[in-house]
Amino acid sequence: MADLRFDDRVAIVTGAGRGLGREHALLLAERGARVVVNNAGFVDDALFDDMTAERFEPLIDVHLKGAFFVTRPAWKAMREQGYGRIVNTTSAAGILGSPRMSNYGSAKTGLIGFTRVLAAEGAELGITVNAVAPIANTRMLERSMASVAELADADALASAQELMRPFFDKVDSALVSPVVAFLGHADCPVTGEMYTVGAG
C-alpha cells in the first residue's frame, strides 16, 4: 500500500465532510489525488411496524439514488477515457440484516446489485466497480446505537456500553480507507467484489 500513488488522478468522494468519507478523501489527497468532496449518508431507524414511506424513501434517495446520480456523469467520463475505478459503500445492515433498519438495509443492499451490474458492464471498458461494507465508529453507528439504547433499561445500557467501548476504540474510520484506496487504484485487479472492512 505504501507505494500506491494517485498523482494526476481525480477522486470524487461523497460524504467527505466527516467520518469514513473524510478519511478516504484525506488518504487519497495524501497519495497525490485531486479530490472533489460532497455531503451524504444518514440513518432513520425504526421498527418495521413504525416504518413509513416518509422514513423509507429518503434513505433510498440518498444512499441508492445518490450513488446512481453521482456515478452517471463519472461513468460517461470513464467510458470515454477507457479507464475508471468505482468503490461503493454498502453495509452489514443490508447484507446480514439488522433490526430497525429496513430502509437503510434496503438501500445498502441495492448498492450490491448496482455494484455487480456495473462491474459486468464495465469489464470491457476498463472500469472496475467494487464495494466495501465498513465496520467503523461513525456518527451513523452512534445514532443507531442510541436508537437501540432507547429500548434498554439504564443498567443494561451501561453494561453494553462498557462492553462495547474497547471494540469502538479499535474500529477507527481511518482503518477502512486503505482498502478503499486499493480498490480505487489503477493496479487493482478485481471487479464486482464486496469486502467487509474494519479494524485494519
Q: Could you please say which CATH topology applies here? A: Rossmann fold
Strand order of the largest sheet: 3-4-5
Helix and strand pattern: EHEHEHHEHHHE
Q: Decide which structural class fits the backbone.
A: alpha/beta
CATH architecture: 3-Layer(aba) Sandwich
Quick one: biggest sheet? Answer: 3 strands, parallel
- Large-scale geometry: globular
Count of discrete domains:
1
Number of strands: 5
Instruction: Give the strand content.
Output: 15-25%
Count of runs of 4 or more consecutive helical residues: 7
What's the CATH H-level superfamily name? NAD(P)-binding Rossmann-like Domain
User: What helical percentage do the residues reach?
Assistant: 40-55%
- Overall pLDDT score: 89
Distance between the termini: 13 Å
Main CATH class: Alpha Beta
Task: Give a concise summary.
The protein has 200 residues and is of the alpha/beta class.
Describe the protein's architecture and organization:
There is one protein chain. The protein is α/β, with parallel strands linked by helices. The protein is 52% helix and 15% strand. It has a single domain (10-198), classed as 3-Layer(aba) Sandwich (Rossmann fold), CATH 3.40.50. It contains seven helices and five strands. The strands form two sheets. The chain has a three-stranded parallel beta sheet with strand order 3-4-5, with helices on both faces.
